[in-house]
Amino acid sequence: MAALYSTSSCFCGSLGSYPVHKSVKLGHGKVRDSGFYFPHRFQCATPKLHVQAKALSVDGLPEIMDSSLVVCFGEMLIDFVPTISGLSLAEAPAFKKAPGGAPANVAVGIARLGGSSAFIGKVGEDEFGYMLADILKENNVNNEGMRFDPGARTALAFVTLRSDGEREFMFYRNPSADMLLQENELDFDLITKATIFHYGSISLITEPCKSAHIAAAKVAKDAGVVLSYDPNLRLPLWPSAESARKGILSIWDTADIIKVECNA
Predict the structure, then answer these.
(1) What sequence ranges are listed for the domain Carbohydrate kinase PfkB (predicted)?
(2) Where exactly are the structural domains of the chain?
(3) 13-258: what fold?
(4) From the CB of residue 166, how many other CB atoms can be counted at a distance below 10 Å?
(5) Roughly what angle, to the nearest 10 degrees, separates helices 102-112 and 127-138?
């Protein structure tokens, strides 16, 4: 799997009343085996954040100390994973389905940790789309920002971890519903209620989702919401490594938090 390289990751926050505030420089990172390079150095100075924490109430049950909302924007899809690990996709005898999509995974993770989260994105008006919406609801993620496209299917991805440790992907999105989200379908009220607006880069690949992504981030920024960016490179989805480089860097400077993955 190709992954972003850097000299350090960029994150700042506070846990409870103990703030962490630091500024780091990202060096000449690259994506392995792709020819993808950052053209120059970046300074990433991030603001202080207040991260939700849990405490025990008088009855011994978890209690949320802060109701800060994290709104996650982007793709949600069905992953098909081999029933036997360590095989290539061609070698796998069978597959099992699982919910996927990096922004949706973040929303579910936050909710499972006791936080408040919501997801904005588009799926097909099909069995898989409704299944994904139900999974979010079952995990206490606000899914009011989801949209259902009657003319496009929910995205599918076949993914495996090979015996050599590399992940292998095969995507079915020609186009899938997540690529067709439009600006006029966005829930701007939900976005402006957020403390953090989190997104990836896959939603930047094609229109109309690209314009919807940019509009959503601008509304969030103008409302004083912290922007959290996971570049999450999936090179097979981009027309070329160069277009991926340009697309990912096109919104780099607007983010307050950037997740940078480092693989040795």
Answers:
(1) 69-260
(2) 13-258
(3) UDP-N-acetylmuramoyl-L-alanine:D-glutamate ligase (3.40.1190)
(4) 13
(5) 30
